[in-house]
Amino acid sequence: MTAAIKPWATSLLALALVLGVIPASATPTSSVCADGTAGCALPTATETEEETAAEPLLARSITPARDRSPHFFASKSYNRWYAQLYIARVYDWGQYHWRCLDELWQIESGWNELAKNKRSGAYGIAQALPAKKMEVFGRNWQRNPEVQIKWGTSYIKSRYKSPCKALKARDRKGWY
After folding, report:
1. CB 116 within 8 A of CB 123
2. Containing H/E element for 39?
């Protein structure tokens, strides 16, 4: 037994697609019409105003990154992959800045989210000191490389403006 799709259901479906809750391949192409007959086409993404307004959000969203990653979560290759994706989408930093960030965090932690400096107590990929300040980006900061990358790039942006300037400061002072 099928029922007609309510007017709000199309908007809810669009929101679920944008947020990545359901994959696009799982959406139906036709449904039951309001008059009870079968075969009514659902509106496409370009047919509704709400979906058009959500397109920039979709283009910048990296929330389901783990599902698209070719690497195991929290591996060094995943951490590097996620950071490169994140800085490009959030800060619009390209390859030049990626190379600087890659070098900086290779020196600091080897891209290991569990790295801890025995002398200073600095922790994580970005070597936060004190480490607990990463908590503003997520309660699971101690083991989640995504939280550490978000905090680390935010720190770099606010203090140095770019990863290359942070790397130069690190080379000059021995820390950043």
Report:
1. yes
2. strand 38-41
Contact 2, 32 (CB under 8 A): yes
Residue 75 to residue 47: CA distance in whole angstroms: 41
Residue 116: count other Cβ atoms within 10 Å of its Cβ: 13
For the chain, what are the domain ranges? 7-60, 65-173
Contacts of 87 (CB under 8 A, 6+ apart): 93, 97, 98, 101, 153, 163
Q: Which of 117, 80, 114, 76 is CA-nearest to residue 99?
A: 80
Q: Flag residues of the chain having pLDDT under 70.
A: 1-65
Which 8-state DSSP code applies to residue 45? G
Q: Give the pLDDT confidence of 23-38 residue by residue, as tens digits.
A: 544 444 444 444 444 4
